[in-house]
Amino acid sequence: MSTGPREIVTPFRPIPLDVPDGMAPNEFFNSTENLNDLMHNNGLLMNPENLLLYRKALGHSTEFDTSIIYNTSRTVLNPLGRPVRRTQVPDAVKHVWNRMNQVLIDDMVEQFPEPDRALILAGEASLDATWPLTSPGVPSIRMLHNHFMVFSMDDLRAAKLADPDNPNLTDGGQHSLFQAYMNGVYRRFFDEALDLDILELADADESTLMLTGYPQGLPCWKIRGGVDALKDPRFWREYDLILEGFLDFYRTFFSQVSTRNAPMPRDIFFPEAVENVLLFDNDFLKTAKKVRDQCIHDPKYANSIRWQPAFKQLIYRNDAGELIVTISQNSIGNAITELLGVVVKRVPDADAYAVREPALLERLLAVRSRLIEADLGDGIATAQWAAD
């Protein structure tokens, strides 16, 4: 069987939502009214921390597909002022968020125990509006949310090979930029900045999915202790360290792209590593010069740059059944699944979705029960399901 990214077809039921005249779809989807619809038609669970578990109506998968969104639509009316990454979430909210993540991932592993039959992944992507708001792919809901999904490996094996030049798979050029010119300094920086006990750097054979050949060239960390380690708060602190290290690298690099010999950005998490590794590394600085020069002479290229940190961070299960953490820079329109070589083609097909919906809802309601039992929220009633 050929190794390569797969394009999987996922049916969905069209959503009967009318965008008001004069509003762009992304403007409406950022509104409180849209979040009300999401909660009342697809909401599964809500808690006092404003963490909302919901069924993905326009989902990636019909096996298992749900999200937790930090619903700040009523408490922060300015969409550009809402938390969009874990480092911006209050500690009390993050504590509950981590526990919900642990229960959901544990449930996915329990419901889908065989790695050769199911691809499991959970993670989040940056939702910063860090490119022009008129561009395609601007976040439809600018609030931090996690994705939890499962794909049938049989379906992936049967799926056609995706175009490897798909701009999402190539990460808009920025992934290749990091890997082609800064792979060594990227890894050295992580090695010096991070003090990890539960996360262990994995080699390519451990982290790469044999079917797709992804992720490609990214630093990956194996979770010592597997799913049980997610019950340890230390794991989530280390998970945050990975993100903080990535943010430091990204911010420092693009500050140098923007301004030659720029000072260290403010609020850096690992200032010593930034100073000792990044700001004295010739590969790092000459790559920043390469990008800066192209920005000066190519306005289209300059307009495509995401000057603020944009990322995808996820936990997934490898071929051996081990849990792996990785992180990558994000690009416009880039879905979290594509980091693992899975391109999702959504097609409107209410009949096909209806066939798969009962099993999907059974799984989602089962994990909701576990969350309720753990005092992580109260059930939401919709036209399709009760609150308990």
* Percent of residues in beta strands: 15-25%
Q: State the shape.
A: globular
Q: For the report, how would you describe the main beta sheet?
A: 10 strands, antiparallel
What is the number of E strands? 13
SSE topology string? EHHEEEHEEHEHEHEHHHHEEEHE
Quaternary state of this entry equals single chain
Helical content, roughly? 25-40%
When the domains are counted, the total is: 1
Structural class: alpha+beta
As laid out across the biggest beta sheet, the strand order is 8-9-11-10-5-6-4-3-2-13
Kindly report the average pLDDT value.
Answer: 89
Q: How many helical elements?
A: 11
Folded structure, characterized:
This protein has 388 residues and is α+β, with helices and mostly antiparallel strands. The protein has one domain. It has 11 helices and 13 strands. It has helices at residues 25-29, 32-42, 91-111, 153-158, 174-193, 204-207, 233-258, 271-278, 282-297, 299-304, 350-373; strands spanning 6-12, 43-46, 51-55, 64-70, 118-125, 145-152, 160-161, 199-202, 220-223, 311-317, 323-329, 342-348, 378-379. The protein has a 10-stranded antiparallel sheet with strand order 8-9-11-10-5-6-4-3-2-13. A hairpin with a 4-residue loop joins strand 2 and strand 3 (51-55). Helix 5 (174-193) crosses helix 7 (233-258), helix 5 packs across helix 8 (271-278) and helix 7 crosses helix 9. It starts with 5 loop residues before the first strand and ends in a 9-residue tail after the last strand. The mean pLDDT is 89.
